[in-house]
Structures are given as structure tokens and as C-alpha cells.
Write a structure and sequence with these properties.
binds NADPH dihydro-nicotinamide-adenine-dinucleotide phosphate; seven-stranded parallel β-sheet; alpha/beta; Rossmann fold; 3 domains; single chain; binds magnesium ion; Rna Polymerase Sigma Factor, Chain: A; four-stranded mixed β-sheet
Length: 385
Amino acid sequence: MKNISILGVTGSIGTQALDVIRDAENEVRLVGVTAHRNFEKLVDIIEEFKPKYIGVTDSDCFGKVKEYCEKANMNCELYSGEEALEKIATLEEVDTVLTSVVGIAGLKPTIKAIRAKKNIALANKETLVVAGDIVMSEAKENGVEILPVDSEHGAIFQCLQGNESKDVNKIILTASGGPFRGRKRDELKTITPSQALKHPKWNMGRKISIDSSTLVNKGLEVIEAHFLFGVDYENIEVIVHPQSIVHSMVEYVDNSIIAQLGSTDMRLPIQYALCYPERNRAVAHSLSFKEASTLTFEEPDMDTFRCLKLAYEAGKMGGNMPAIYNGANEIAVELFLDEKISYLQIEEIIESSMKEFEFVEKPTLDQVLDIDRRVREYVLKKYVK
Ligand code: NDP
Ligand code: MG
């Protein structure tokens, strides 16, 4: 039996992880959860799973949850604010922490969890992007595993099993291409939030849906793959595969390619990460090659979707540049969703932030958090009148 806690239990990944836990009740027990603002969903989860520890980061939502738990005579411990994430990430009885909060909010609790020697089922890719060197070296020092939840990285992780990393030629990351695949720049000028939120293949949280449409998500995943698997950027290739059936591939020195395929269902990589090294019975549907008989592949259009090119640039520069890229994107996506900037300004904001700030080769954790804050201030001042 594995005890787990979920940071961001009310989100898209969090709730799909609950499906996995429902199905694996003899293998996985939910001990701690955190939520931010979604009171209704959190109450449903508390009633069904009765977690012993509950963290709520938003203060209004915390007040409501406290009142609810007192009235319902729930036998649980409650934590509020930023401390809530760190507390739930470091609970003594927990073995694995699923990090499924969105954005850089996941960084500090992930580091705390690693220092408390918890294995990490990592959905929160922003954490690795902004501080990949720090996170991976802390993981090594503390002897903990970082198990990828992102479908592409989960796929690569599976393709690497039983092989030597020295024999890897390259990683081939697949991308669906997002809702605007095939469009040209002129056609992107007037994109609205509701158009960008409609992903053709995956049903995800709002931020990652926008990131998928701009190909920022693929850019973040290139950087995530670099840190997770220790592969140079020259050897990480992105290929657009609109059917999202091949979740990624690894080419070895003999030019043999191993791919992982499966239905388009995040519960599969979540389950693999939570139950690793065991394989549990299926939560996802079996993939029928009669239905999915056509698999196509094409080059990404990096001249139209320039955020992917910028991510390669940020990754190759290293240091604090991925944190600048990420911070600029996080605030730009918020502004776009609030209809304060246009769609193409997301890319403009990332590019101008990468030019604005001084390069730091080996940023500390505090420097990463500081640059993130300064990038957001800069963007708000420059782009919001
Ligand atoms: P959602 O927006 O659906 O969920 C985010 C979760 O984080 C919610 O539980 C939310 O709480 C909580 N949260 C939001 N803001 C804060 C904050 N400031 N502090 C603490 N908690 C907060 O996101 P997703 O589930 O889509 O994505 C989560 C992570 O997983 C992201 O990093 C994403 O890139 C990654 N990922 C997601 C995939 C997907 O299919 N969705 C696929 C691969 C990776 P509440 O709802 O209560 O407000
Ligand atoms: Mg992914």
C-alpha cells in the first residue's frame, strides 16, 4: 500500500488521479490533499475520500472549508495559506506526492517534499522548467524518484525502461499541434480565449490549454525533458502528431526507435507514475488500431508558433532564462484570459522579457523566485495600462 498526497486535487490532473485511486484502492491510499478556490469540488472529495490532512491556499475558501469540516464533525487536520502546500507535501506517513498545482506555485512545496524524501509524481512541469538543476540535484542528493506524469515524459520514461541512457540518440516528443495547427500568423491575431481554450484532443486546465494552443506547452516540455532525462537540446526533437496516440519515442544509437502508444487518457500516465514500478489493471480504454488506423507526423511550424522556438533558445541559454520564459508566459496567459492583451502578445511578452533581464548562470532558489516576481512586475507595468 502506497500513501499519497495530491497538491491541486481539485484540478484536471487532480481529479483524474482520484479516478486512478478509486480503481486502485488496495494499492494506493489518499492521505492529504490541497485545493485553492474550488470549495464545492473539494467538499465532494472530502466526503468521498475522507483525507486526514487538508490544505486550502485561498483564505476565503479556507474559511468555508473549516466551517464545513466543523459542522460535519470531520476527523481531519486543516492547513491554510502557502504553508498548507508545504505541510501536505511533507506529511510523515506519505510516500509519494503528486504535484498537480499549476504554475510556479508548485516549486517550493516540491523542493520541501524532496527534502522530506518523498517520491514525486510530477505533473507540475513549471517546477522543472524554472529550477531544473536545483530540483534534479536535490532529488539525487535525497535519493528520491521524480516520476513524470506528463503524457510525453511518462511515455519516454517507459521507453527508457531496461535500456541504458548512454545508448540514447534522441528523444522524439510528440505534439498534437493544438487547436490552431495549420493556421498562419495573420489568422492568429484575433484569437479569443474561448477559441484557444478548446483543445482538439485533451480536456485540461485553462492555463495548459492556452499553452497548448501557443505551443508554449511543448516548449516547456522540451525543457522538462532536458532536465528529467539529461538529454541535450540538440537531441530533443518535436514532431506534430495530431492523433495523440503515439505519446513520445526514444531513438537509440542503433537507430531503433521505441515508442509508447495508448488512448488519449491522462489517467494512464498518472497511474503509471503513482503505481510505479507496478503496472496496475487498466483505467484507460484499450486502443483499437481499427479505429485509430491513421497515424500522421509533421514538422512543427516554428515561424508561426514562435513560442516553441523561444523555448529552445531559453533552454539552450540555461541559467535563469527558462524561469524568465516561464514567468513571462504565466502572467501573459493570465492577462490574455482576462482579455487584457491579445493572443499574439503572449509571444511578444515572452520575447521582450527574455531580452529585458540580466542573465544569471546558476541561479539559487531565491533568485529564481525573485526573477519570477520581477518579470511579472515588468510585464504588468509595460502591458497593462
Ligand atoms: P487545473 O487548473 O485544472 O488545476 C490546478 C490545481 O491547482 C487546482 O487544484 C487549483 O485549485 C490549484 N491551484 C491553482 N492556483 C493555485 C495556487 N496559486 N496555489 C495553490 N494551488 C493552486 O490545472 P491542470 O490540472 O490542468 O494542470 C496542473 C499541472 O499539471 C500544470 O502544471 C500542468 O502543466 C500539468 N499538466 C496537466 C495536464 C492536463 O491534462 N491537465 C497534462 C500534463 C501536465 P482550485 O481548483 O481549488 O482553485
Ligand atoms: Mg504533455
